[in-house]
Structures are given as C-alpha cells and as structure tokens.
Amino acid sequence: RKEVEQDPGPFNVPEGATVAFNCTYSNSASQSFFWYRQDCRKEPKLLMSVYSSGNEDGRFTAQLNRASQYISLLIRDSKLSDSATYLCVVNSPGAGSYQLTFGKGTKLSVIP
Amino acid sequence: EAQVTQNPRYLITVTGKKLTVTCSQNMNHEYMSWYRQDPGLGLRQIYYSMNVEVTDKGDVPEGYKVSRKEKRNFPLILESPSPNQTSLYFCASSFKTGVSYEQYFGPGTRLTVT
C-alpha cells in the first residue's frame, strides 16, 4: 500500500463550484499533515497545515480524520486561479525525523 | 526577501561528469531537504539535514551526496550522473513549530543527463 495516496484527477469544474479532494495515508503514527499547491513547472507552496480540529482559511477548509487515516481539502466558490495540482503531505514519525512524504497530487482545472 | 535559491536553474550534462547543484536559504532555518520530481512518481525526498553537519537519507539517496557545512547552504552533488537522474530537483528549507514543519521550496533545477 502506498504511503500517501491521492486521486490524480483531473478534476474539471466550473467557476463557482465546490470541489473536495481526499488523501489517505498508511502510517497511523504520522503526526503532521499539509496541503501544498503546485502550479505547472513551479515549486510547491504551502497552502495549509491540517489540524486535528480542522481548519479554515477563506474559501479553503482542511479536515483530518485520524481514525480513518485520511485528510481532505474543500475549496468553495472555485476561481480560475485555483487551477493547479494539490499535493497532500504527511510527516513520517520518529525521533528527530524530518521525512516528509508527498502524494502524487490531484490536478484541478477550473473552467470559465 | 525571504527565499530559497537554487543554481543552476537548468542544466544539460553528459553521463559521468560530476556536478553540483547549490541551494541557499536566508531564513536561518535549521532544516533543509532535497527532492526530485518525476512524472507519475511525484516528489520524492533524496536527502535531508536537521542541522549543520547532520544529514540523513531520504527515500531515494542512491547516486547523490550532500553536505551541510553552513546553516544556509545545502548543496546536492552528483558524482557520476546517469540518465535516470534526469529530473526536476527542488531544495526546501523549513522551521519546526511543535511537531509540524512548514517548508519553503526553491524554484527548482531542471537537470538533463544525456
């Protein structure tokens, strides 16, 4: 089983739509979780950290379900500028560990 | 401006010719890391460093070396590049908040080995 798994998409949605991405992780001891955004041929950029209680930043909401080992990202009122690949990232545990495992990403295209 | 810089941004080289990709950050971050990104495989960690003179292997370290002699610099060395190392490489630095690491990536280096 892959460590971090995402639906690759692509998700093609109209402007204004709500879209949700899910990501599952295999290591139940994982401690921290993130969503990154990557535009074509550019570096990934941190979108949100994901906290156990869930967190929201404007149109973006992230949720963590430790029991089921999945993370979700909800984007409301999609904009053309939201078109990108969204990467789920999980921190592998261990004393002093700095190993981050990336999902392969979910591609989103927002259509006019 | 807070940033991670990488050089060169683009490099075409031949098999076996040693090369170094530099990475520098000006944010005084303790943690630095190198990744490669390939189509269908996503981002994979090559090496990481948790402090000066402290480095460790990531998921795909074979064929690579790193060093961390200064806090701000973390060069990636390919002693004898091979075509399967053709890839897009990203350097990243981060600070730790609790159990979380917020990473900042460099702009990437596109390497082609012929």
Detail the topology: elements first, then pairings.
The complex is a heterodimer of chains A (112) and B (114).
Chain A: E1 4-6, E2 11-14, E3 19-25, E4 32-38, E5 45-50, E6 55-57, E7 60-65, E8 70-75, E9 84-91, E10 100-102, E11 106-111
Parallel strand pairs in A: 2-11
Antiparallel strand pairs in A: 1-3, 3-8, 4-5, 4-9, 6-7, 7-8, 9-10, 9-11
Chain B: E1 4-7, E2 10-13, E3 19-25, E4 31-38, E5 42-51, E6 54-57, E7 65-66, E8 76-78, E9 87-97, E10 100-105, E11 109-113
Parallel strand pairs in B: 2-11
Antiparallel strand pairs in B: 1-3, 3-8, 4-5, 4-9, 5-6, 7-8, 9-10, 9-11
Describe the structure.
The complex is a heterodimer of chains A (112) and B (114). Chain A is globular and about 40 Å long. With 112 residues, chain A is an all-beta fold. Chain A has strands at 4-6, 11-14, 19-25, 32-38, 45-50, 55-57, 60-65, 70-75, 84-91, 100-102, 106-111. With 114 residues, chain B is mostly beta strands. In chain B, strands 2, 4, 5, 6, 9, 10 and 11 form a 7-stranded mixed sheet that branches. In chain B, strands 1-3-8-7 form a 4-stranded antiparallel sheet, with no helix packed on it. Chains A and B meet through β5 and β10 of A and β4, β5, β9 and β10 of B.
